[in-house]
Design a protein that fits this description.
InterPro entries: P-loop_NTPase (IPR027417)
Structural class: alpha/beta
Number of helices: 18
Keywords: Coiled coil
Largest sheet: 8 strands, mixed
Protein name: Large ATP-binding protein
Length: about 725
């Protein structure tokens, strides 16, 4: 059984109610192991990490007016194309006008790519930094100071995000030698526009002969993963599990390596560069022996709380769903009731529907028969009407003929209607004597002539007799017999009367038929309504049953997915470990806070006092008489305080073997925030003091080269004076 388990057993036994658990220490140890919470302390043993050689080479592409390009031939470079050292050198030697990659099709350009004349200038930089403080300085900015640090961190982390695009293109080969504890490692790779391809080689042991052995190879994106897999176990660094919202996020080598660097343009948070990892970064610097177990307990507890929160959220959602289902069920019941209420109250049966339908059909049949008779009678009326019109026409024709005959027989034409020869008066007067027609000279009937009727002797006797009879009667034209017209008129009147009677009978029967059909349809509607009512009553019964079931059921209860005993053990373990870590860490943090205040004051932040750094990697202080935190400081104050904090943490943690920081610290441009040269000199001296005490390796890159030249030996500095370049 472990000490941690025994303490957890005591805490759980002292609790009351449901929070009280009686467990054996062996049971607690088993739960802690299952939760991946270490039950024993882990002694932090820092492993030294040192740089022994930095080498990188390539070809600069400079403007012809650049001082370093003097005396060199310019070449035309395609804008945006990728180039390597071989092609650049060959182009310069062969005076090729257009620069290509290794093969012509390797040049990647855009349609509007243009060319520019640049001078290729090969370079090769090599430096062997020393243990202690190493300085990189120049008289001006943009002279290559940060590039050396970026190459160093590139080889260590596998990332080159901080390079400028032109520098990234210039560098084509990198070699960095490291010592990691007892081992000598070399990271070597070729680069093409930041794409690194190479290997990590173990050269041998420190102080021993060279026995090269390849530990890992990389090509592009896997560079960082290879470095993490090799460095973390060698530096005794553990993966950092951090619970974020709904899952555990594991931080590894990039998060740790960020704690090696302090940059003037990245001052938050106060420890490292990851906002969410302040506590774990603190443990890296001054971690106590129980710090890893505390972090594991916190992660386990937060994971179980997240499961409980998720279960509670699901139960709430389920409860909302049940309540909504009740509302929906009630709405369904109300909707069916509204449909039932809308149905007619009266009822009908099938017999009534059949009787009404039969009556409507019989009336329709009678109407149909009468309509047939009406059609026949209409035809008879039309026949009588036609006969009447024919009789009247015949009478009219006869009358017109009589009138015409009388008219033409009394005519005395003056010319022949055939040839237009004149009919003279003498010829007309001679008709009674010569017995000839004055027009056609035909012989006239003498008997008719005596009756003053002009008719040819050749005309039949019957016709002659009729003409003579008409001539002897009165002048009124005889209307002839009227029996035919009277008979036709009487027949038409009788037909029309019968038609009127049939139409009246049809209208009465059609009305009765329509009434019967409407009654039948209404009765059928009632019958359908009755059927609908029965269907709706069944639907209503189902809806009311569903509503009743939902009304009687209770809301879903929260089912805790977490074993309360496991949760209690994790919470109690975290409580115990927090106390142990705090008891062990607080005295050290007081000493560190004192050193931070002293160093920050010497760096020029002399208006800050009562600086307090806590185990959560947050800092409070007085600025004048006002209480502030680290985030309230100006950028210049943050830079001084962050550097002072890094120095103090490394000094106490690394020197006392209580952290895992490997003793490598990189300070990039600490004078960027208007730090006077005197304050920079004080900082370098403080760094020298810490490096001697803790046997660290510290790099400082600054444009104020004076303190570096004055305080550091030549082997520990790379300085470009005036307008010169570092490489």
């Amino acid at each position: 059984m472990s000490t941690l388990a025994e303490e957890v057993v005591r805490i759980l036994a002292r609790r009351r109610g449901d929070r009280r658990h009686l467990l054996a220490a062996d049971e607690v140890d088993a739960i802690l192991e299952d939760l991946k919470i270490p039950a024993s302390a882990t002694k932090a043993i820092p492993v030294p990490l040192r740089v022994t050689r930095i080498h990188f080479s390539g070809t600069k592409l400079l403007k012809p007016t650049h001082p370093d390009a003097d005396g060199r031939d310019a070449i035309e470079v395609t804008e945006g194309a990728f180039h390597n050292q071989t092609s650049i050198t060959g182009a310069a030697q062969d005076d090729i006008s257009i620069l290509f990659g290794e093969e012509p099709d390797e040049v990647q350009t855009t349609e509007d790519a243009s060319t520019i004349r640049l001078v290729p200038v090969p370079f090769s930089f090599q430096w062997r930094p020393q243990t202690g403080v190493n300085g990189i300085g120049s008289g001006r900015n943009l002279r290559g100071k940060s590039t050396i640090l970026n190459v160093l961190m590139w080889s260590l982390t596998g990332r080159c995000a901080r390079f400028q695009d032109d520098i990234k293109q210039w560098i084509q080969h990198v070699e960095v030698d490291w010592t990691v504890g007892p081992e000598r490692l070399q990271v070597t790779f070729d680069s093409r526009d930041g794409h690194a391809a190479g290997q990590v080689v173990k050269l041998g042991d420190v102080g021993g002969p060279d026995r090269p052995h390849v530990l890992g190879e990389f090509d592009g994106e896997d560079f960082g993963a290879v470095m993490g897999s090799l460095m973390m176990p060698r530096l005794h660094l553990e993966h950092i599990p951090v619970w974020t919202y709904t899952q555990t996020r594991v931080h590894a080598w990039p998060a740790y390596s960020s704690a090696f660097v302090v940059r003037a343009n990245q001052l938050d948070p106060i420890v490292g560069n990851e906002q969410t990892l302040g506590i774990r970064m603190m443990q890296m610097f001054v971690g106590t022996q129980w710090a890893p177990a505390q972090a594991a307990a916190t992660t386990a507890r937060r994971g179980m709380e997240a499961e409980q929160s998720s279960a509670a959220a699901k139960a709430i959602a389920a409860g909302d769903a049940v309540r909504q289902n009740r509302v929906n069920a009630q709405q369904a019941v109300d909707a069916v009731k509204e449909k039932v209420a809308a149905l007619p109250a009266e009822d009908s049966d099938l017999k009534t529907v059949l009787n009404l339908s039969t009556r409507a059909s019989e009336l329709a049949r009678q109407v149909h028969l009468l309509e047939g008779k009406l059609i026949a009678q209409a035809e008879l009326a039309d026949t009588a009407r036609q006969q009447l019109r024919a009789a009247k026409a015949r009478r009219h024709t006869k009358h017109e003929t009589a009138l015409a005959t009388r008219f033409f027989h009394r005519m005395r034409p003056s010319v022949c209607p055939r040839c237009t020869a004149e009919v003279t008066a003498e010829r007309q007067a001679a008709e009674p004597t010569k017995h000839e027609c004055s027009v056609c000279t035909s012989s006239l009937n003498l008997e008719a002539l005596e009756s003053d009727v002009i008719v040819a002797a050749s005309v039949p006797a019957a016709v002659t007799s009729a003409l003579m009879t008409r001539a002897t009667t009165s002048d009124t034209v005889d209307d002839g017999p009227v029996d035919e017209i009277e008979a036709a008129t009487a027949a038409l009147s009788a037909a029309e009367q019968r038609t009127t009677i049939l139409q009246q009978q049809i209208r009465e029967l059609a009305s009765q038929r329509d009434i019967a059909a409407a009654e039948a349809e209404a009765s059928r509607g009632l019958l359908r309504a009755a059927e609908s009512r029965r269907t709706l009553e069944i639907e209503l019964a189902r809806a009311e049953g569903a509503l009743d079931a939902l009304t009687q059921s209770s809301d879903p209860t929260v089912i805790d997915p977490v074993d309360p005993v496991r949760a209690a053990v994790a919470g109690a373990a975290e409580q115990v470990l927090q106390r142990w870590v705090k008891d062990e860490q607080d005295p050290l943090l007081k000493l560190i806070s004192t050193d931070v205040e002293r160093l920050a004051d010497s760096f020029g932040a002399n208006n800050l006092s009562r600086i307090r750094l806590n185990g959560a990697a947050s800092m409070s202080m007085l600025k004048g008489a006002r209480s502030v935190t680290y985030t309230d400081l100006t950028e210049g104050e943050k830079l001084r305080v962050k550097i002072a904090t890094a120095i103090a943490l490394v000094k106490h943690g690394y020197a006392n073997n209580i952290g895992r920081h490997p003793g490598l610290l990189v300070l990039d441009s600490p004078a960027a925030e208007e730090m006077p040269e005197a304050d920079l000199a004080t900082m370098v001296e403080a760094l020298q003091e810490v490096a001697q005490e803790a046997e660290m390796q510290i790099f400082v890159a600054t444009r104020n080269a004076g303190p570096l030249v004055a305080l550091l030996p030549a082997a520990s500095r790379v300085v470009a004076e005036a307008d010169n370049y570092v490489w």
